[in-house]
């Protein structure tokens, strides 16, 4: 068994020569002896003997043996006899989801995959694409217009191979990519890259904590190699990539991961401290500038044994004691963060701010280093075996249930959704305001499109043309509303199921969801030995 260099997947090799690749919590991604997943079912891998990961887990070297046969010389039958074994060395290339190494809450509806030197982008949701390839047409999950394969400039990737981090902004029009040093960004409208003009400044930046977009600014958690210090830097895409146009905040410890919620940046560092920064945009010339103000610093040492055990951290407005908002017309700014999500070795902890305490998103402190303390309730573990997390900061007035939910991929345990429930103000306080629903997966989830109520994934398909094998990447989808309805009805939450159905009836595939639900119910009734209420 061999873990990938980033410890995201595990490759297992059996005595019979088969190998398979699994996620951290047990989802099978590839099996060499599966006719559906092998490179060519007519020409299998053979008997694999040695496996070895390449740099950053983008490649897997496989050494195997294949038996070569030749027809028998006997004239009474055509039995083939093995005459020798030949060794072969296979190189398998992999694509990574950008959210694996760079998990954040922005642009959760887009599929962004990365290879060693390319980025594969699939825009989804109600996005208006303005690049020249699709003439401004809306790209939705119901209209598969294919992937955009974006090659990094050779001037950058030659010195900074391979790709470490990649992210796309909420509009789906701007892309940022970081390699060994520095970073570059790309406009899907102009089809042009922007690089650092000063090679020394590029070599001085080593992105280690993550890369994300905030409005028209790029936020990166990095290390300055020349001064050996850890920093958070903000660069505008409207100006040249140069340190004179950047805003820098120094940290005392290396950055493990970062995330953003509206105008608040959350940073988790190696010393087990969480820092919250308020981001402020100011108009200016030649372009607007951004400033950071430190709001809070919180120690999570009692809950986290080691910093490397935390692959994700984020802010959220969700609480265990608050379900569906009473007002569905609340704006973006009426939905402030009230809790911190921390994934510790697959256990998702929710740190909830005490009611009546100081806000997590204060205004800029009047005095330097004058931070107001904030108190939290004891952490609550809301799920285990968590591999991926999707949450959104904005509320959707047309679909408040799904937009106020928390989506989790829990390996072999399937997909979980922490769904809000409608509760009247005068109802007893002991009634639960949220419920955790679980359903199975037919694809590995890479994105959640709340507007369309579907889960997106990707699959590699192999095609043969003129005795050559070609690989193509295909988007896969899975609807989930039928599972949500079924679980709610099973738990006697018919009213909430009806309310969700009312808010989702405008979805194009809603009738198909009802058909799937009916088929499932009839199938269970037909195969059950006991009456189903």
UniProtKB/TrEMBL annotation:
It comes from the Eukaryota. Residues 482-532 form the RIC1 C-terminal alpha solenoid region domain. Keywords: Membrane. InterPro entries: Ric1, RIC1_C, WD40_repeat_dom_sf. GO terms for cellular component: cytosol; Golgi membrane; Ric1-Rgp1 guanyl-nucleotide exchange factor complex. One of its GO terms (biological process) is intracellular protein transport. It is found in: Membrane. The keyword Membrane applies. Its main location: membrane. Pfam families: Beta-prop_RIC1_2nd, RIC1. Signal peptide: none annotated. PANTHER family: GUANINE NUCLEOTIDE EXCHANGE FACTOR SUBUNIT RIC1, RAB6A-GEF COMPLEX PARTNER PROTEIN 1. This is Protein RIC1 homolog. It comes from Rotaria socialis.
